[in-house]
Design brief:
The complex is a heterodimer of chains A (107) and B (118). With 107 residues, chain A is mainly β. Helices cover 0% and strands 45% of the residues of chain A. Chain A has strands at residues 9-12, 18-23, 32-37, 44-47, 61-66, 69-74, 83-90, 96-98, 102-106. The relative contact order of chain A is 0.34. The chains are: A mainly beta (107), B mainly beta (118).
Amino acid sequence: SYVLIQPPSVSVAPGKTARVTCGGDSIGSLTVHWYQQKPGQAPVLVISFDKDRPSGIPERFSGSNSGNTAALTISRVEAGDEADYYCQVWDGSGNYVFGPGTKVTVL
Amino acid sequence: QVRLQESGPRLVKPSQTLSLTCTVSRAFISSGGYYWGWIRQHPGKGLEWIGNIYVSESTFYNPSLKSRSTISVDTSNNQFSLNLTSVTAADTALYFCARGRTGCFESWGQGTLVTVSS
């Protein structure tokens, strides 16, 4: 089955930029989606189709996908961005695969 | 904005069947265009897709859970359900229902914690 790799944690100072990566074999040929999950809450879709922001998601959130790495970038990080972030793909065989998640800590 | 709400027993005994229902409001399952899925999260861990169902009643399951999973839909009550058989402590998790389209899950329920214990 398809495997996604994410760093366990990323730390960033307020106002700076956080980059969360999601690695996978030729992931650039797949479509990547990103979810934000705060403690005690359900996940929220923050980036779909590699780089699209659903309604209500701040422009500070952006995505990219190429080669073997997809990335979620959070610009001008705020305290409220502290959360777990998961990448997800549909592997083309009917399976929906989530990455292990990255905890973003705002210093 | 669609709303999804999970319901079902919070405590299930080992070897028994875990049964959960997701009630959908502000949208109709029968209207098509979406799939309806179940995702779980073990305590302190990441997300694990369980399976999806379409209004056509086609289903797709995580290969690791396929032999024990059944997802069904009840359009008359605007609900869909998950049955997971022969549960063990490893099935203790927070179970989410969600609505998805074209590869992602756009809307999620709040989740329900199910504990497997005697």
